Amino acid sequence: MYDGNQIGAIIPAAGTGSRMQSGEKKQFMVLSDREILEWTLVNILKEAIIDVVWVVVPKDALGSVEAKLIRWRKKYGFHQMIHVVEGGSNRQESVHRALKCIPDSIEWVVVHDGVRPFVDIKWLDRNLKYLAEFDSIVSALPSTDTLKIVDNCNVVRTTLNREEIWSVQTPQVFKHSDLRKVHDRASQDRFFGTDDASLMEKYDYKVLLCEGEKSNIKITTPLDLIFGQAILEWLSKE
After folding, report:
1. Residues 6+ apart with CB under 8 A from 99
2. I need a labelling partner for 146 at 20 to 30 A (CA). Which of 20, 84, 96, 187 fits?
């Protein structure tokens, strides 16, 4: 709840995890003693900011995830309603399907990747105030690398100004009606963005980047599991 308005969360977790090179989908792989999706839900629901959640999963995982949610609700005492939605053929379609399930009473929607298990939900508390001026707020990190544009042969064409480059994460927060509009339009226009904020940009909405956390990694490769374990150990000491 924020400023008297309900906040819903969409957790896209319908990916196949091809880069993980494993028979197990990455969102269901175990990191320490919990599945990655389990870690994500625990961390996004630990504060009373999110009122209701829609978790988007592959069709063949609908039943198993519903059973897990019953166990996790009892284990962690989740008070929020958690719904399960069948995912689409890509992330954008999965988010669009979830949006169609969300009632108009939900004013704001948070979209957060199911495989970013170390989200600090206090980021929302710190930055929701900017929704009065901007159409969307997005977690991101200023680039620490030098970035170059190359041609088809990997020959450098130009070097970008690092001070203008940010690496985008989730959570990303939107007014519910705006996010539904841009997803509907993108579907009609057959436009595919790299994230939900890119749809807002496409249709001329104002997006603000707010600095996130380096620990908020997206787990997509076997090496990320090693990084994730190290982050867990570091967080336990903190």
Report:
1. 10, 109, 176, 179, 180, 183
2. 20
In this prediction the pTM is 0.95
Cα-based distances in Å from 77 to 7, 136, 198? 19, 30, 35
Phi then psi for 89, rounded to 5 degrees? -80, -15
| CB neighbours of residue 60 within 10 Å | 9
**Using one digit for the tens of pLDDT, what is the confidence trace for 154-202?**
999 999 999 999 999 999 999 999 999 999 999 999 999 999 999 999 9
Tokens of 33: 């003693």
CB neighbour list of residue 203: distance below 8 Å, 6 or more residues apart: 181, 182, 185
- E strand or H helix at 57: strand 52-57
User: Rounded to an integer, what distance in angstroms lies between the CA atom of residue 233 and that of residue 226?
Assistant: 11
Q: How far apart are CA 123 and CA 139, in angstroms?
A: 8
- Beta strands 166-175 and 156-159, pairing class: unpaired
Tokens of 170: 């989730």
